[in-house]
Each structure stands twice: as C-alpha cells, then as structure tokens.
Q: What sequence folds into this?
C-alpha cells in the first residue's frame, strides 16, 4: 500500500515533507513540520492522517498531532484530549469528523487537508 499518485502530487506541490507507512490495511501519513495557526502552541507539529482501507472511495476521519498541542491561552483544544499510540509515538487525537458527503473521484487528500486546516483555523 502506498499513496495515490494524485495525493503525492498534491503533497509535493505544497512542499510538505512527509512519510507514508503502511500498517495492515491503513496507510499512516505523517506530514512533518505542519504549521499551526497562532491560536495554538507549538508553531509546528507532525500531523498524522490515517488513510483507511477502501480510500479514496471512503474518507479519512480525524487527525492526530505530535507533540501535544495546547491553545495559546494554555487550555486544551476542543475534543483533543485523547492520546493514541501509532508508529511508536504518542499522538494527540483531534476528534473531528467529515460532515460533508465524501465524493469519490472528486475528494481526496487535498480535500481532507484543506478541511483540517479550516478546522485548525477555528482555534477551538
């Protein structure tokens, strides 16, 4: 299992440094030094996206960060207090779920990363 060509092209076009690691039927995509909005600390994190079996027919759900992220005021982000172990690291799970209908053949990693950025920009 590896990333789709369109997804690799997207990641490369954005200049993201990334690693994709298969784990059973899931691909763990880590985008390194992913920038966070000023509402959070630290400034950058490693962002984990777990690409599910059947993708791109089905969509990724939630995202994870390492190191632990806090709001600039010191509080924890909304629905981001659970820690999970993947790839030998502890990740902060952001319980954010895809609300729009996923459009196979149209939506992909580009869509999911854009939704993740929009969610982070809310600063909650």
A:
């Amino acid at each position: 299992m590896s990333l789709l060509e369109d997804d690799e092209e997207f990641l490369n076009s954005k200049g993201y440094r990334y690693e994709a690691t298969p784990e059973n039927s899931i691909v763990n995509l880590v985008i390194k030094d992913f920038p966070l909005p000023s509402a959070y600390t630290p400034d950058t994190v490693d962002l984990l996206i777990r690409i599910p079996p059947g993708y791109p027919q089905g969509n990724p759900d939630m995202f994870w960060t390492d190191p632990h992220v806090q709001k600039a005021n010191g509080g924890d982000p909304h629905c981001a207090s659970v820690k999970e172990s993947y790839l030998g690291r502890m990740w902060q799970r952001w319980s954010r779920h895809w609300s729009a209908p996923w459009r196979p053949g149209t939506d992909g990693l580009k869509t999911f990363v854009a939704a993740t950025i929009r969610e982070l920009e809310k600063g909650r």
About this structure: Residues 41 and 70 are 5 Å apart (CA to CA).
